[in-house]
Amino acid sequence: NAEFTEFSDRYMDTLFDICRQEVDAEYKKRIITEDLLAIFAAGGHAREQAYDDDYDIIVLLNSDDEEILSYCNKIVSKMNSDIIKRGTIPHHRFADYFGRFVILMREIEQLLSEDRPDIFIEKSQILGARLVVGSHRFENEFLERVVKPQIFDKKEDYIKQMIGEIHSRHTADKKQLLPASNIKESSGGLRDIEMMMLILKAKFNLKGPVNSKLFEDVARLQSNLENDLKELADALNFLKNLRDVYRLTAGATDIIVLEALRSPANIMGYKSGAELYRKFVAMRKKV
């Protein structure tokens, strides 16, 4: 994961520079975007996990200038074409809201200020984002203008909505509306752990990426939670490894089928698929 993340981040940074040079040649000038434009990774890549079939991106612009906005959209469009050529689908978070790839900082501020019961979805995307292209000055302003006032300062509401969503999915799981072997969505699966990580980040105003190191950061602040946090970290590593190996050997699905676990069991060091499946069930119960 670490090596793949480092490679992907460098690729995105280099690709941005190349595409900007191409757009500069079309404009016959350079439009200054330093400290104004930033590209954030979202989803699994923001958590520094190797992704498979898509790349979640949030592109933010801290300017209302129409020429700069058009210029930046052209750069990102060229980046999209190159990413697609390499067999990966760029998924632009918030593009459906605003009808373009590049989103204005003030638009995100307005969106997250909406008072509705499902606003935790958009807030989670922002809270989990990780800067890939852009300056630390932009990142700091993003934190002060967006993350702090809309999430950290309203953490009680955010955490309440997140807990409500977890309970709602657990209820659906008990009613068998979700497949019992879904490694991501069922009770104790990856989604539960990821949501708990976001809750912890909001609770303690943490600035780092949402990855396994977050458990260590929280343990230093709350030593009484150290054992529970270690169990969550162990569960996250096991479930993520199982999901990756299963997707490589059995199929690109989150539904774990016992009969398809022979190869994953061999790779992960288990005697049989049944033993690995029992570990999978036990880990989810522990979460």
UniProtKB/TrEMBL annotation:
Residue ranges of domain PII-uridylyltransferase/Glutamine-synthetase adenylyltransferase in the record: 159-283
Hydrolase is among the record's keywords: yes
InterPro entries with a match to the protein in the record: PII_UdlTrfase/GS_AdlTrfase, UTase/UR
Keywords (A to Z) from UniProt: Hydrolase, Transferase
Keyword DNA repair among record annotations: no
Molecular function GO terms recorded: [protein-PII] uridylyltransferase activity; hydrolase activity
Species classification: unclassified sequences, metagenomes, ecological metagenomes
Listed Pfam families: GlnD_UR_UTase
Protein name (Swiss-Prot/TrEMBL): PII-uridylyltransferase/Glutamine-synthetase adenylyltransferase domain-containing protein
